[in-house]
TrEMBL record:
<feature type="domain" description="Transcription regulator PadR N-terminal">
    <location>
        <begin position="12"/>
        <end position="95"/>
    </location>
</feature>
<feature type="region of interest" description="Disordered">
    <location>
        <begin position="181"/>
        <end position="222"/>
    </location>
</feature>
<dbReference type="InterPro" id="IPR052509">
    <property type="entry name" value="Metal_resp_DNA-bind_regulator"/>
</dbReference>
<dbReference type="Pfam" id="PF03551">
    <property type="entry name" value="PadR"/>
</dbReference>
<dbReference type="InterPro" id="IPR005149">
    <property type="entry name" value="Tscrpt_reg_PadR_N"/>
</dbReference>
<feature type="coiled-coil region">
    <location>
        <begin position="126"/>
        <end position="167"/>
    </location>
</feature>
<dbReference type="InterPro" id="IPR036388">
    <property type="entry name" value="WH-like_DNA-bd_sf"/>
</dbReference>
<dbReference type="InterPro" id="IPR036390">
    <property type="entry name" value="WH_DNA-bd_sf"/>
</dbReference>
<protein>
    <submittedName>
        <fullName>PadR family transcriptional regulator</fullName>
    </submittedName>
</protein>
<feature type="compositionally biased region" description="Polar residues">
    <location>
        <begin position="194"/>
        <end position="205"/>
    </location>
</feature>
<keyword id="KW-0175">Coiled coil</keyword>
<feature type="compositionally biased region" description="Basic and acidic residues">
    <location>
        <begin position="181"/>
        <end position="193"/>
    </location>
</feature>
Length: 222
């Protein structure tokens, strides 16, 4: 299985763990919540769904709506297929969540893994965050070395592009430092609208996201 199909499998299982969905709703969630899949088509998604069904990790159900609207409510229209996670699929997804090796640190994979951190244990989150930071620090060092060697041969626009790339990596490293600090402290910092009763609560399992200082939080896929 290719890396890209592997991360699609992970994302599909993760989304269906939240609730059963039609293929259309699933694709919409992949596109809007997990931007790395914006270019994915039904021609890519449905073979993945069929493979997951064949493995016994999903089941296909017909009957209208995933929330229970019967097929008779769809008079004159073909009943939609709802995809539902099986117990074996849930177990498989939990196994995938436990993986924290180098593949989870890569640009495309990290963004998707991060989207499911709410379902991931703290020790795994820490390993993924620290691995991602290490990977970016290595990349940053290579970028600095390359820029120092080629600076005199670059025109102003190419030089500015390289500086922009370095700044993006530096910004993500700072963001990762904040996340790692929060995980270590075990803070549970929810969005403002949900913190009235528990802003200072601590959780040994879920940790929390740091409040981002100085502007919007960077996209981890940059």
């Amino acid at each position: 299985m290719s890396r890209r199909s592997g991360i699609l499998e992970f994302a599909v299982l993760g989304l269906l763990r939240e609730s059963p969905m039609h293929g259309y709703e699933l694709r919409k969630r992949l596109n809007t919540s997990l931007g790395v899949f914006r270019a994915f088509s039904y021609g890519t998604l449905y073979p993945c769904l069929k493979a997951l069904v064949a493995h016994g990790w999903l089941v296909e159900e017909t009957g209208g709506d995933p929330d229970g609207v019967p097929a008779t409510a769809l008079t004159g229209r073909r009943a939609k297929i709802v995809y539902r996670l099986t117990p074996a699929g849930k177990e498989h997804f939990e196994e995938l969540l436990s993986h924290s090796g180098p593949e989870a640190w890569e640009d495309e994979h990290f963004g998707v893994r991060f989207a499911f951190f709410g379902q991931t244990s703290r020790d795994v989150r820490m390993r993924v965050l620290e691995g991602r930071r290490s990977r970016l620090e290595e990349r940053l060092e290579k970028m600095r070395t390359s820029l120092a060697r080629t600076r005199e041969r670059l025109d102003d626009y190419t030089l500015e592009l390289q500086r922009h790339g370095m700044e993006s990596v530096e910004r993500e490293v700072r963001w990762l430092n904040e996340l790692i600090e929060s995980e270590r402290a075990g803070r549970d910092q929810r969005a403002p609208e949900s913190t009235e009763q528990g802003e200072n609560d601590q959780s040994a399992d879920t940790g929390g996201l740091p409040r981002h200082r100085g502007g919007s939080r960077p996209d981890p896929s940059e």
